[in-house]
Specification:
seven-stranded mixed sheet, Ribosomal Protein S8, Chain: A, domain 1
Length: about 850
């Protein structure tokens, strides 16, 4: 027996997803005379407990199909633009194509599913020796699971060194639903060392099974992909054969099987799923469940519908009842005569005379004047048993009640025996003279009632409609769709089953609605809402085939960038640029897919421009932080280049007086304060203090600083915290005094500029900052619009009126500030 795995790192608990209140953020930059240049590789230190939230955004099938081609680009763009994680939820629901029960009740099954969303206690990752999750399944799991997976992987390598082929390492699942991720290193295929490759793959699978089978690890289900069949080049059919044969040997040779009860072979692509299914059928035998199709379907739309509720899976398929492979099929018998009726005669013809002999023998033991439920063997049928429903001569007295009773007793028979599946034909329409719509109502309602009465009973129920009965099939489909909508969140309408062994996770999964969607995950509600609005704008392209991108970083596009925009127009889209009121916008129009592709490319381009501008500004600020050092300019630029500025966020509790004071102030403006945070940016503060100190010496006795407000889009808030205000972030609708950085004196004036957007999303982010009104133009190249009636040697702010002032700093891209507050506010009628 191969040696067990080397060991596993202890997982760190993943962050919860409980929603937290919306935010109002206060930032206070402490005065620092000579801040040190931070050398850390991060820019934010938070003293808050930042819990994660998630938003589910349903999308259409057409948009989903386009986004699947751009999934990686979508994730990167949402992360760069909003700081959120975006997960594209598949329209294809999990599909189980094979299931077989082995020794001690161990189930092995084959699934077509996305591993990142598969329901199992442990997921297996096909990793490399260094646990660098840089591509394929490893990258998908790392992105979906969050940074904890990479962090734990890094710690494992630091403690234990690199893995050798066949070994495993275990980490937590991060934000995935699984308990553990088992990282295994499969062999790289070599045609000259094929036997060694097969043995090493066997070792890897055995190490996985030994880990999950250990009771102390509490793993009841594990999902295993086709390890090494991807970029490692292991031949697919041989890979599937080795994996299935290893599982079979492990289960059969274990003297006393341990903890794991379900082994799922999970892959997302059709060829791999088909190969796994073939290997299982060859080595383990025919599946225990009815084969829905001879081959794995290429599209989820080809699959029969099903409803999953409390572990019971109800399917509607078209076929012949006598050909079904479920454990039990139900027969409808008239007056103890198996040769009467289309259903019974078809079953008898295929099963053979032995079926009739056993049926007659059992029938004689029961009274003749009541409905009988007789269980016989299947004989020549593919099923194990046949449950015969024998209608009495009085069956038509209350037809609906009789059919309800018959369905209920059939299901109770299943409850009395450990049968995993049952197939029903359309029973009762001939004998009970019920119309097809009534039969469909009763049969479906009885199965769903049984599922609710016996939660946790794993059972596949098939309603088999004859291919020639199109009207009956339509009636069942209508009732089936109605049941889906009525069940709503209680049922999972999918095309497979959830065989997870954890009842709590199973209930959670069954409560989720299926269908294509984007899940957004982040720790700031304002950025989640901004990302949600952006995605909804993308979805609106489907109707108008048009999208407008408003972003003043368009002004900073280079000649090379404009050439790239021109190149896009060769792919069927038209792009026009417009500048209105100091705001730049691009209008993209064309076919749906081409417009979305172009929008993603342009948004990524603008994010890169934004990042370059941010880096230049931070470099300037950091260099100013070294003005009093002895570094020559050349060495100073080298020292600050590429260094990230560090700032700190900490919360202001709602019981504090400073919170209450500002809460009252914003309530007067019709705004609800949701959260306050303090921001400490020592470099930004130091730059401001030097300006302030310089100006104070020339304006003795006059006020040189003012508390002002500015609304900033959520996507730019972190940039303001890092490098101060920039005029590209938040230009007003009308720039009355030219290009510059605009502020207002009173929170009430914020709504004049933001009313249109607030009506849409109700969340706004506002900064309160202490701004120096006497900026020295010859030192900082700053000037301001000023009031000529004032007898000042230095310019001052211009105002629109004495009470509601609009002020602006002009001829500069950025404004330094000392104390600033970021408010995330709720605006609208419903503020409770």
């Amino acid at each position: 027996m191969p040696s067990p795995q080397r060991g596993a790192s202890q997982p760190a608990p993943g962050p919860g997803r409980a929603p937290h209140p919306l935010t109002f953020l206060r930032a206070e930059a402490h005065q620092t005379s000579n801040p040190e240049t931070p050398e850390e590789d991060y820019d934010l230190v938070s003293s808050m407990d930042t819990e994660e939230e998630s938003l589910i955004i349903p999308i259409t099938k057409d948009v989903y199909e386009i986004l699947t081609r751009q999934e990686s680009c979508l994730r990167d763009l949402i992360e760069k633009k909003f700081g959120c994680i975006a997960l594209l939820k598949s329209i294809r629901c999990p599909l189980e194509v094979y299931r077989k029960t082995l020794k001690e009740g161990i189930e092995i099954s084959v699934w077509m599913d996305d591993m990142t969303r598969h329901n199992a206690d442990a997921l297996v990752n096909a990793a490399n020796e260094h646990l660098h999750h840089i591509g394929g399944l490893a990258l998908a799991l790392a992105k979906a699971g969050g940074p904890e997976i990479k962090q734990e992987s890094k710690r494992y390598i630091e403690c234990h060194g690199t893995l050798t082929t066949g070994q495993i390492a275990v980490t937590g699942g991060g934000r995935l639903s699984c308990k553990k991720i088992i990282h295994t290193v499969g062999p790289r295929w070599s045609v000259y060392e094929s036997e060694r490759c097969c043995r090493t793959l066997e070792v890897a699978i055995i190490n996985i099974l030994q880990y999950v089978n250990a009771p102390e690890n509490n793993i009841k289900s594990v999902a295993i992909p086709a390890v090494s069949s991807g970029i490692f080049g292991f031949p697919l059919d041989l890979c599937a054969h080795v994996i299935v044969q290893t599982i079979k040997n492990f289960v059969e040779l274990a003297p006393l099987f341990g903890w794991v009860k379900e082994i799922h072979l999970v892959n997302v692509d059709e060829p791999t799923v088909a190969a796994m299914k073939r290997a299982c059928e060859k080595l383990l035998g025919r599946s225990d469940i009815n084969s829905l199709q001879e081959t794995v379907p290429a599209s989820a739309n080809q699959l029969p519908d099903s409803i999953t509720i409390n572990g019971l899976h109800l399917h509607i398929i078209r076929g012949q009842i006598e050909d079904q492979h479920t454990a039990i099929i139900v027969n409808s018998v008239v007056m103890n005569d198996l040769s009467r009726g289309n259903i019974s005669s078809a079953i008898l013809k295929k099963a053979g005379s032995s079926l009739q002999q056993e049926f007659l023998c059992e029938s004689q033991k029961l009274p003749p004047s009541c409905e009988k439920f007789i269980l016989t063997k299947g004989y020549n049928l593919a099923c194990k048993s046949v449950l015969h429903v024998v209608w009495s001569s009085q069956s038509s007295s209350d037809s609906r009640k009789v059919l309800k009773t018959a369905m209920s007793k059939c299901l109770l028979k299943i409850q009395e025996h450990p049968f995993p599946s049952i197939s029903f034909p359309v029973i009762g329409s001939e004998v009970l003279h019920l119309v097809k719509d009534e039969v469909a109502d009763i049969m479906i309602d009885q199965v769903l009632s049984f599922a609710k009465e016996y939660p946790g009973r794993k059972l596949d129920v098939y309603f088999v409609i004859h291919p020639n009965n199109s009207f009956v099939y339509k009636a069942f489909r209508t009732k089936f769709d109605s049941a889906k909508s009525k069940l709503g969140e209680y049922a999972e309408c999918n095309r497979s089953g959830d065989l997870g062994s954890r009842s709590d996770r199973q209930a959670e999964t069954e409560n989720k609605k299926t269908g294509p969607a984007i899940e957004l995950i982040g720790n700031r509600c304002e950025t989640l809402e901004a990302a949600k609005i952006w995605i909804k704008n993308i979805m609106q392209i489907q109707e108008s085939h048009l999208i407008v991108i408003e972003n003043n970083h368009i002004f900073n596009l280079s000649k090379k960038d404009h050439a790239e925009l021109s190149r896009l127009q060769h792919f069927g889209v038209s792009i026009s640029e417009e500048v209105v009121g100091g705001k730049a916008r691009l209008e993209i129009q064309g076919p749906l897919g081409a417009v979305i592709d172009a929008a993603f490319m342009i948004e990524n381009l603008l994010c890169d421009v934004q990042e370059n501008n941010r880096a230049k500004q931070e470099e300037l600020l950091l260099s100013e932080g070294h003005l009093e050092t002895d570094y020559p300019p050349e060495r100073l630029r080298e020292k600050t280049r590429g260094t990230k500025m560090r700032y700190q966020i900490s919360p202001v509790e709602s019981y504090c007086q400073e919170f209450k004071d500002r809460e009252k102030q914003f309530e007067k403006a019709g705004l609800r304060v949701l959260k306050i945070e303090k921001i400490h940016n020592p470099v930004l503060s130091a730059a401001f203090q030097r300006i302030k100190k310089c100006v104070e010496g020339k304006t003795i006795g006059k006020q040189i600083c003012h508390r002002l407000y500015q609304r900033v889009p959520a996507q730019f808030c972190s940039l303001v915290c890092r490098a101060g205000f920039q005029r590209t972030y938040s230009p007003p609708p009308e720039q009355k005094y030219g290009a510059g950085i605009y502020f207002v004196r009173n929170p009430r004036n914020l709504m004049e500029d933001t009313k249109e957007k607030c009506e849409m999303d109700h969340l706004i982010c506002v900064f309160e900052a202490e701004i120096n009104s006497r900026l020295l133009q010859n030192l900082w190249d700053f000037s301001v619009i000023y009031n000529k009636s004032m007898n000042d040697s230095f310019p001052s702010f211009s105002t629109t009126d004495s009470l509601n002032a609009t002020v602006m700093i002009t001829n500069t891209e950025v404004s330094f500030c000392s104390i600033f507050y970021k408010f995330t506010l709720w605006w609208g009628d419903k503020i409770s």
